[in-house]
Amino acid sequence: MGVYVIAAAELAVRRDLLVLDVRERAERASGMGWIPGSVCRPPEAPGLAPAWTGGPVAVACLSGRRSTIAAQGLAERGCGEVYDLSGGLLAWLEAGLPVAGADVPTPAEAGQTLSRARVERELCSCFVAEAVLVAVDRDEDGAMALDPLAVVREALSATVGPDPSLTPAQLGDVLERLAAAARAHGHAPATIAANVDRLLRLAHAGAWVV
Q1: Both 122 and 88 in a single domain?
Q2: Which residue, of 72, 101, 184, 204, is most buried by count of CB atoms within 10 Å of its CB?
């Protein structure tokens, strides 16, 4: 199966596509932001398509050059339905679509340990309850409402296992998983971005440091 080219406006409404951002994590966090609900998977990262997705993917970068190469590689490896975002993040911005993480400080990494219990409570109240449950209520197929606590705990367990604490970098991975879940359930990119940005600011301020 080949690679399909997709425009930013179409990607914004295609909730079935997991968006893979193939920029380096440092570039992704450099201030321009990222597509809400996308996950960071540079080409050299182990497992370009995360194991926790089984559906079609869309690949994005800054301008579309790297994503074209990465998307072709995924297609050649038999990853199924693969889309390449035409023009990358720049085209997304030009279309007037919202981004997460734009000019939002990332949490300081050195020596910080975050309380898992406190992070869990904040994620439930701020992100999952608003971004995932509301979206599921809109499902045309009448899908059963998700338990926000279960969704958060699944994301935390997949990232840190049973540990009672996590690092800021691990928190970033958890937020990516939850944002992707919200996107998959049809929540608006602007709402996902607002929730992610709020949580990043809280983390940067040391809200959950132990």
Answers
A1: no
A2: 101
